[in-house]
Amino acid sequence: MTSSINWFEIPVKNFSRAKAFYAILLDAEIQEMPHPIFKYGILPGDMQNGGVTGGIVEGEGYEPSMTGSLIYLNGGDDLSIPLSKVEAAGGKILLPKTSIGGNGFMAHITDTEGNKIALHSMK
């Protein structure tokens, strides 16, 4: 097993708003994926080479949350870059860039939908 995580889903209430938020935060296009029931967008990731990614999902049974599992998204080369975009994109910084020693840096944010999400980078 190369990773204990295979896929994740972030519940959203307003797909268009969430899609815009994550596109700004991750500086990447969120690809819409046809789905028979839900509105679904795929976050950037290189699954062909063993990378892990996930999606944003709007639909019955998907409720944004500030509690429960915490997903850490890749903050790129320098966590300061995506953090500088959070509030302008409609989110909020809960825990600013914080050193975790030799493991880099982390921060906690809320997205436009009310989900608590974390970011991580080595710088």
- Helicity, as a percent range: 10-25%
Count of individual helical segments = 2
**Mean pLDDT value:** 95
Strand content: 25-35%
CATH architecture: Roll
Q: Indicate the CATH topology.
A: 2,3-Dihydroxybiphenyl 1,2-Dioxygenase, domain 1
CATH class reads Alpha Beta
**Overall radius of gyration:** 14 Å
Q: What order do the strands of the largest sheet run in, or round the barrel if closed? A: 1-4-3-2
Notes on the protein architecture:
The chain has 123 residues and is an alpha/beta fold. The protein has one domain (7-121): 2,3-Dihydroxybiphenyl 1,2-Dioxygenase, domain 1 (Roll). It contains two helices and eight strands, in the order βαββββαβββ.
Quick rundown:
By secondary structure, this protein is of the alpha/beta class.
How are the SSEs placed, and which strands pair?
Layout: E1 7-11, H1 15-26, E2 31-32, E3 39-42, E4 53-58, E5 72-74, H2 80-86, E6 92-99, E7 105-110, E8 116-121
Parallel strand pairs: 1-4, 5-8
Antiparallel strand pairs: 2-3, 3-4, 6-7, 7-8
Helix pairs in contact: 1-2
Observed structural traits:
15% helix, alpha/beta, 123 residues, 4-stranded mixed sheet, 2,3-Dihydroxybiphenyl 1,2-Dioxygenase, domain 1, globular
